[in-house]
Amino acid sequence: MEYICIGKIVNTHGLKGEVKIESYSGFDSERYQKGNEIFIFYDNEYLSFIVDTFRIHKNHPLVSFKDHKDINLIEKYKGSNIYFDKNKRKPLENDYYQDELIGLNVYDENGNEKGIIKNIESTLGAQNNLLIEKDNKEVFLYPFIMEWVLDVDMDKKIIKMKWLEGIE
Question: According to DSSP H, which parts of the chain are helical?
Answer without folding.
Answer: 28-31, 71-74
